[in-house]
Amino acid sequence: MTQDATPASLQPPRQMMGRGNAWLRGLGAVLVSMAMTFLGLIAITFFVGRVVPIDPVIAVVGDRAPIEVYNAVRAEMGLDDPLILQFLRYVADVLTGDLGMSISTGGRVIDDLVRVFPATLELATLGIIIGVLLGVPMGVYAASHHGTFVDHAIRVLGLVGYAVPAFWLGLVGLAVLYARLQIVGGPGRLDFFYDGLVPPVTGLILVDSLLAGDMAVFRNAFSHIILPAAVLGFFSLAYISRMTRSFMLDQLSQDFIMTARVKGISERRVIWHHAFRPIRVPLVTVIGLSYASLLEGSVMIETVFSWPGIGNYLTTALLNADMNAVLGATLVIGMVFILINKGSDVLYRLIDPRARA
Amino acid sequence: MKPILEVENLRVSFPAPRGRVEVVKGINFSLGAERLGIVGESGSGKSMTGRSILRLIQRPGRVTADRLQFEEVDILSASDRQMRAVRGARISMVMQDPKFSLNPVITIGDQIAEGLVAHRRLPRAQVKEKTLEMLRAVRIADPEKVVKLYPHQVSGGMGQRVMIAMMLIPEPTLLIADEPTSALDVSVQAQVLDIIDELIRRNNMGLILISHDLLLVSAYCDRILVMRNGEVVDECAARDLAASTHPYTRGLLAAMPHLNETRDELPMLDRRSQAT
Start and end of every ABC transporter domain (chain B) (predicted)? Predict the structure, then answer.
């Protein structure tokens, strides 16, 4: 009875409030699950750090220190405490951004990561943009022209992308486009005399130079990044166009495509509106995974192009047994994976009505 | 009665490892504003006949005919653009299973409206009004709610009614219904067919009902073609079906169980005697 007595005008806002709460609750659930995953990631890097046969004490005192010094430093570093206490301390350190000192660079690991990660982020982002902007339309075109010459040509291009080693393509690209034709910049992110001209805000030089309004720096940075990004883009394009093609072929043989054709709508609309929409969900996964693998830092590409990114940093750290740097970089890469996975989960729900509970 | 569709010597073939295989082998029929039933077993070519009228058979399939004329349109020589103007607007098709024949990620309302918008420029409000009206015509009680739903949120029977609404909204003159009830529960089959029947009569349309169900076809059609192995083997008025003397039709009829069945075993078609 009390419900019946509620004025009708009060009901719509209530409903909206309910919906807002559900949305907030959804967001909360996502955040909690991300936090848990991240904690798991920290636990794994922590235990990996304990298991590897690299003694952090010797890394500090050197292998000729007397046993008393060794023991004193060991106690000071808290390595005699119970493992759980050490773990909690590690979690607290990570949460406050303290990842220890790097023995190969001599600086704090967190500072190193803040410096190298944007370089990789910039390269990977431009690479995936190239891969998606070319790969998706190519895959769709190949599928809708199944069996034609263009379809075969796109498939061969994809195969080449799989088969050609990245470092070879990078080297040939440098030799032809930089050394001979001089139409792109050489290795590194910038030429000498442009270095340090714009204040680092985001660490992405393309963005920072635009923020500073310095087009000369922007053009120089672009000439440096375009070749490695194109090489990375070519590899993700190979994968993305192949997957797009096979998803599209699958959709184009579905009954609802015939339904769409029966309606008399244009073939372009059949392809993009009816066949492409359902594949956006698996495509988000494919693109997300491609992007994540680019963000790990392509060691080959970063080495060939002397790109000061995370792949380069991680390799150097590994070769120097610099555990703090290795674990720090691993944490960053793991976090990128978590973020991209959660991001695609959220996108799914926006894209696919069947995934909305 | 002036025919709206004339079919002469229609052939459909597909490539196979050893030469092309004909799945429709030169059939003839014509159709006015009447209800024609095509019955036959699986693989008899009845669906291919329906699809070739809309020119929906894709490469490498091939359709030939001496004559395939729909009103003033020569279907086989029409351009793609002319064909698109015929599809949906003048000839439409209801397919078998709404679970697969409706797009899973587009709302029901948008899918119904699309068929209309593709052929006529109308203000948005009018499109919406027509969509709701069409849903009411297929006996959907709460159309305002249903237009916002996605296909996975409705039952099979309702999905098929949505399909009918979608196909009839541009007011075509010919509807091809390809096994429209085979995927549905028996309890909703009659309802769906009654709706088709009512709308066909009201709009004075032609209907081609493709089915493997003899009784159903004889109940809802005026005339029946019986197909087998890509050929029309028997043709009769629906009410004369029971009196057909053709051995294949008799065989099919005999193989149907009856409610007051006294036979221990249902007879099977003796294919040896009819082998070509």
Answer: 5-254
Please provide the average confidence, as pLDDT, over all residues in chain B: 88
- The reply to whether A255 touches chain B by the CB within 8 Å rule is yes
Mean pLDDT of B252-264: 80
pLDDT for A295: 86
**CB neighbours (10 Å) of residue B107?**
17
Segment B139-149 mean pLDDT: 92
- Closest to B234 (Cα-Cα) out of B253, B216, B220: B253
- A131 or A322: which leads in pLDDT: A131
Domains defined along chain A, listed by start? 18-95 (no CATH), 116-307+345-355 (1.10.3720.10)
Mean pLDDT of B56-82: 90
Pinpoint the alpha helices (H) of A145-253. 149-163, 166-173, 205-212, 215-252
Highest averaged pLDDT of the listed ranges A90-94, A349-353, B261-265: A90-94
**B-chain residues near A260 (CB < 8 A):** 103, 114
* Tens digit of each residue's pLDDT (9 = 90 or more) over A206-236: 888 888 888 888 999 999 999 999 999 999 9
Residue of A259, A284, A351 to mutate, testing the B interface (most B Cβ within 10 Å of its Cβ):
A259
Contacts of residue B239, defined as CB under 8 A and 6 or more positions apart, other chains included, come to: B218
Query: Whole-angstrom Cα distance, residue A53 to residue A75?
Result: 19
d(CA A196, CA A199): 7
- Number of folded domains that form chain B: 1
Q: Residue B225 sits in a domain of what CATH number?
A: 3.40.50.300
In the three-class reduction of DSSP (H, G, I as helix; E, B as strand; rest coil), residue A116 is classed as helix
**Long-range pairs of A32-39 with CB within 8 A, sequence gap ≥ 24:** A33/A342, A34/A338, A34/A339, A34/A342, A37/A338, A38/A334, A38/A335, A38/A338, A39/A91
Q: Is A12 helix (H, G, I), strand (E, B) or coil?
A: helix
Q: Which domain holds residue B200?
A: 5-257+264-274
Q: Do A354 and B97 touch (CB under 8 A)?
A: no
Q: What whole-number distance in Å separates Cα of residue A89 and Cα of residue A30?
A: 26
Cα Rg of chain B (Å, integer): 19
A145 part of contact set with chain B, CB < 8 Å: no
- For residue A266, list chain B residues with Cβ-Cβ distance below 8 A: 84
- CB contact, 8 Å: A283 with chain B? no
Q: Among B18, B96, B149, B52, which Cα is nearest to A255's?
A: B96
Nearest to B88 among A255, A262, A353 (CB): A262
Answer for the pair B2, B32: CB distance below 8 angstroms, yes or no.
yes
What band does B51 get if pLDDT is binned at 50, 70 and 90? Answer: very high
Query: What is the C-alpha to C-alpha distance for residues B229 and B25, in angstroms, rounded to an integer?
Result: 8
Q: Is B82 on the interface with A (CB under 8 A)?
A: no
Q: Looking at CA atoms only, how far is residue A250 from chain B in angstroms? A: 13
**Structure confidence at residue A275 as a pLDDT band (50, 70, 90):** very high
Residue B118 has its nearest CB partner, among A256, A263, A277, at A263
3-state secondary structure of A106: coil
